[in-house]
Amino acid sequence: GSTMKETNINSFISYTLFWLTFTISRFLVNNLSSLIENLVRINSLILLFLVTIFVLTKNPILFSLSGFFFGPIFPYVQSKGIKSINGIYVPLFNGSTYAFTSLGGNIVSTLMGLTLDKSAPLSWSIPAIIIFTIYSISKKL
Q: What is the rounded CA–CA span in Å between residue 81 and residue 79?
């Protein structure tokens, strides 16, 4: 909220819209993945673009919109991973992905909070780097 300028919506509404679009896109992941062959790559590029433009403009609408592109990444990777591994490793895979996702979220939000007062662009470079990493890994796989 401290990096957003107050425009036609405040940061509370922006966060609400982020989670709304995030949740809606998770319900649409099967339809989206059938329409878009490289869903993770496309979403990662769009997210990187949105985060960059958000940091530059501080427009909360861009933050809200990013939820739609961030939402399908985890369920898509989860479903593709389960289909491609031996059934005996599925419980380990599920536990690991949930553990790394929650751990990553805690670390990223903490690092962003620590650096936000010093530099908003530096703070937002943390998720941008992670998004770029996801894009790069998906390109190799």
A: 5
